Give the backbone structure.
Amino acid sequence: MSDLSLYEKYGLKQVINASGKMTILGVSTLSEEVVQDMKKGASNFFEIKDLLDKTGAYIAKTLNVESAYIVSSASAGIALSVASLISKDNLDIIYNLHSRKYDVPREIILPKGHNVDYGCPVETMIELGGGLLREAGYSNQCKKEHVEALINENTLALMYVKSHHCVQKGMVEIKELVDLGEKYKLPVIIDAAAEEDLKKYYNLGADVVIYSGAKAIEGPTSGLVIGKKKYIDLIKLQSQGIGRAMKVGKENILGLTRAIELYENSIKTTGEELNKRLEGFINTLNKINGVEAKSVKDDSGRDIVRGELSFNSEVLNLNAKYIANELKEGDIAIYTRDYRANQGKIEIDIRSVSDEELKIIEDRIIEIIGGK
């Protein structure tokens, strides 16, 4: 069955994903090598615990880290990490994490500017794991001393979210959190879901680092947790508790393992290459009165370049929100990064966009402006 017939069979709209690797659009497409390993996984039986242990050991060796474990998603990785630190190896707490009260530390300290909604609030995942959030500092500033001031006998862990969703300026550095963790003997959890470097935060000294398997790695729906063996071993025990509702299938376990192997050995597309692909698109749109197009770098520091389009509503008699919505409502749904549409700007992320699709986006923007 062709892709087109799938769209026709279920009455689905075709989508051009110019918003980035977003969960609402299925995150990433998979390589043939990954699909083949998923097919092998789906066609055979395994002892799942053994499969998870062995693939985790293989990934840990590939990344040169102490331990690794595949989970169902990065969100699950947050909840399971918190739950595992609360219950440790106490089976009674694992079974009754939410139904009974235990006199154990539960507080997770997180910079206030990192308690963001990435599709659901970070706080929700912390609480799903049985934790209690303590926000350090303010939405536009969190210093090391703000974090340290909250540390007490109920503190369970320190957490940091590395994401474009978060406040970027005025935040405590990860190394400063690691230093505090060492000083007070507290584990440091890093949510690095969409980050591209799978070793950086582990090498900085973080105890648990969580990635999405489907974003930068371009694997199937899944999550990857790496870190110190004593913490990863505790996460594994959660399969008897809340982890049962977050189990990952054998085909996705093998698909992600293969994707990580390919990812670590691949030549990455650079920001400079993305910039070159955007040149014609930007030059064309800059010819339209009321539109300003330019290349911009990712504001969280990744080597990603996107096209930023600014629309002068007074000249065009329409605004960026209208344009972004019209792009989604066309025969082919075009999704852009429109979280700054209220400022008159949308961004075009072309990492998952072909040259043919980029031309469709260009033509559709011109059509919307001309039609209005």
